Amino acid sequence: MDKLQRSYKLLGYAGLSAFIALALAVAVKLPLLGLPATQVFLYYSVAILCFLSGSLWAQTLNSEASSPAHLYLSNALTLLGVACLLLNSRSSALVILACAFIYLYYREWHSSNPSRLGKSYQAMRFKLTTVVVLSHLVVLGYQ
Prior knowledge:
- It holds the Pfam family DUF3429.
- This protein is an all-alpha fold and 143 residues long.
- The chain has a single domain, classed as Four Helix Bundle (Hemerythrin (Met), subunit A), CATH 1.20.120.
- It has five helices and no strands.
- It has helices at 3-27, 37-61, 69-86, 90-109, 118-142.
- α1 runs parallel beside α5 and α2 packs parallel to α4.
- The longest helix has 25 residues, at 3-27.
- It is globular, with a radius of gyration of 16 Å.
């Protein structure tokens, strides 16, 4: 395993562990930093969605075959995430964010320019996305 692969796996699973820990905090009703754990989970979810949306920029700018639509999609997903923080319904925000993660994964891997990192990265992203979506469902069930 090369250095880049070790690094993206370490960072990916570290980020995933925060989703899991925050979902557990919601399940046991543990306040975090004086805030309800569901609110902290939503903030973290939006931050990660924005980060991953930015990856569409890199894919688009590094490909001759990509369309500018990915740039607009990236911005739209970021704005959608921010809008979720403004919703009065945390349940709606959780469902929208889970769907956004699924859609982002779908767009990344069904585009004309999948990641140059190959099958290993794609498999990891699938696992991460699955657990992220499941953590949203756990929070939805306990909040």
